[in-house]
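Hi C.,

You asked whether I'd gotten around to modeling the 91-residue construct. I have! Everything is below, sequence then structure, no commentary in between.
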Amino acid sequence: MTYIKVYWHHTSPDDPVLLYSELDAERWEVRKVEIFRDGREEFACDYVSTGSTRLGEAPVPPLEEIAADSEFEPSEISKEEFEEVWSRLEL
């Protein structure tokens, strides 16, 4: 598994500003957490989702491709960092 965090720089109150994803070997999202400017956290996995958050319909592109758009600031993170965020959720 690969774990990523992406800061999304924008001004829309309806879109998340921070996204965490757990990716399988083909880069399909397995679990995702979206954090909004107001502190709200929504999530998705194969058996449940909240709000408008859904798993991607295509594999996640490489970090270099994501970073080519100046609105996005992606980085690879540890499993532990992802699990810390995931454990805060009320499943």
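If it helps when you're writing up: Residues 28 and 59 are 4 Å apart (CA to CA).

Thanks,
B.
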